[in-house]
Write a structure and sequence with these properties.
single chain, about 180 residues, four-stranded antiparallel sheet, 2 helices, 12 strands, eight-stranded antiparallel sheet, mainly beta
Length: about 180
């Protein structure tokens, strides 16, 4: 009986530590906001993300001069509020997370880039971890080059070819387009 109690205590401790330390190292909350202004060759755009509390759908809208130029109302799903940040090269990262509950939280980063006059999904990164055993895995894909790296639960990396290519923001379907080479359910 003492060993069962010890295992339960160990599991609760691991879960508590996962909540405190389970966020991937690359996520810096100070860099993310609900909207961001981006300057590029086509002008200045405002990128806004929203979350429908009834469906958990994350929407992305890009406006230029008060006019919507790109939109996807069901871009991804997330439990927490989505956010964006602008990278030094002018691309935008949209973050969607499901970290508040459950044993297997995850975080997704979608990189949007302005190419040939339109906003496209240029990259996809997903990190997931297990709060009980402390393992995690990551899939990082560059949809412009078709190359990526998958890191498994043991920290082993393997290079992969992305099954998806860059698509316009409005055409992305997160629910059906998740790259199979990432191996996430």
């Amino acid at each position: 009986m003492a060993s069962v109690a010890r295992m339960a205590l160990k599991g609760m401790l691991a879960a508590a530590l996962g909540v405190l330390a389970g966020t991937p190292a690359h996520a810096d909350e100070r860099d993310f906001a609900p909207s961001a202004n981006v300057v590029h060759a086509g002008g200045t755009d405002t990128v806004v993300v929203t979350r429908d509390p009834d469906t958990d759908a994350v929407g992305v809208q890009v406006a230029r001069g008060g006019r919507v130029v790109a939109e996807n109302p069901v871009f991804a799903s997330a439990l927490e509020a989505p956010a964006v940040r602008v990278l030094a090269n002018g691309s935008v990262v949209v973050r969607a997370t499901w970290t508040g509950i459950g044993r297997s939280p995850w975080e997704e980063h979608y990189t949007l880039a302005f190419r040939r006059g339109t906003w496209v999904v240029a990259g996809y990164t997903r990190s997931a971890w297990d709060r009980l055993d402390g393992t995690g895995r990551t899939c990082d894909l560059n949809l412009l080059t078709g190359r990526g790296i998958v890191t498994d639960e043991r920290g082993r990396e393997r290079r992969v070819r992305a099954s998806l290519r860059s698509v316009p923001l409005a055409d992305w379907r997160a629910v059906t387009d998740l790259p199979r080479e990432c191996g996430f359910p």
